[in-house]
Every structure is written in C-alpha cells, then in structure tokens.
Amino acid sequence: MNTALPLLAIALAYLIGSLSFAVIVSRVMGLNDPRSYGSGNPGATNVLRSGNKKAAILTLLLDAIKGAVPVLLVRGLETPMGWGPDLAAWAGLAAFIGHLWPVFFKFKGGKGVATAAGVLLALEPGLGVLTLLTWLAIAYTTRYSSLAAIMAALSVPLYQMLIWGASATSLALVPMCLLLVWRHEGNIRKLFAGEESKIGQKASGAAPAAPAQPPSHHAQYMQHKKTHSRHSHPHKGKH
Fold it and tell me: Per the record, where are the segments of Low complexity compositional bias (predicted)?
C-alpha cells in the first residue's frame, strides 16, 4: 500500500482540526475573542460565557463536525484505496490534535471536547452516544463542564474494552482521551480549589465593548452656546 496517501489523509485531517471555530464564529458575530476572557479556552463552553447562546451552539456543532468529517471521509475511501480500518481512527486523532494545537492560530487551541465527541460518533456511534450521555449526566448534576469532560474521557477506554473489545482503534482513542484530560489540568486545580466556573456563568470582559455614545442634545446646545458666546465677545475682559 502506498504510504504517502494515508499520511496525506492524516495531514489534511490535522488541517481541518486546526480550524478554531470558537474564534471564527466570535469574529463573524462581533464578539470578543474567547481567548481573552473566562478560561481563555477557545471552545463552546467559554463562548457561552459571552452570553451569546447562538454563538456557543454554532461553535459546539462546528467543532464536532470537524472531528467527524475526516473520519467519515477516510471511512468512505477505505475500500477503494485499500486502507485498513484503523486509519480512520488515526485521522480522527489528527483532527483532535489540530484542535489542540491549530497551525492557523499560532498553535493555541482548545481542549477538544466537542471535536473528540465528533470523532467518537463517526468512528463508533454507540460509543459516542454512551460518552455523550456520561457527559450530560455529570454536567447536569454538577454544572461543571470540565468535570463532565474529564469523567467522560476516562470512560471511553472502559466502554471500548467492555463492549467492543480491544482493537487497533483503541490505540488512537487512548492517547486522545489522555490528552483531553491533560488539557484540563488547570480546571482540575480550580475544581479542587472551588474556583471553577459553572456552565452558563458569564465572564467579565466577554461582551463586546459598548460603542461610544454621542453627546446629548442638551450637551450639544450648551457647547454651541459657549462657542457662540466666545465669537460674539472676542475682546471681553480686555478693556
């Protein structure tokens, strides 16, 4: 098998993953850069702290889609190209790494929760659904997105081994889950310190700066009167 094409597929998956939709959506919708407020993480949860639910939902969906697309594309080409079934998993890992270290955004990316969900749903829908249900259950009861993400990530290898068994896919899933937990290292410290933000909690500096307000009609009138008075008595006080 030609190794150049699989490597090209993995490289393209990384480039797709490098599209930081939290930043892109925020720019298009006139919001502040999500890296400048809250947790500083360019992800859907931090975008939600801007108070704009539409932007957060768009970010969540697009980040998940960019994880699923490379997997589905490689799966569609497996038979005609003669690729093994594990290449799709490595493409998913590449997209996930692209989200963490995006080449288009100075290698400063997010934590990869939504992208990992997209990868899992495309690779093994049952595993993806189980992981999402785990995240939802923990997020609903604790209101901590980070804790839900960490517990859901740790559950993925367990679900994979107990239900689907060990496979070549597991070799790509394990590092993805470990990287996701590692990216939450700061959140883990905040959780233990009781300083972690909860879902929906608005962060200071998240809203776009308010435009400067024009002077009131009264202020304009007083300024005009003052200017007119100076022009009407140019030599006043110089007798």
Answer: 203-220
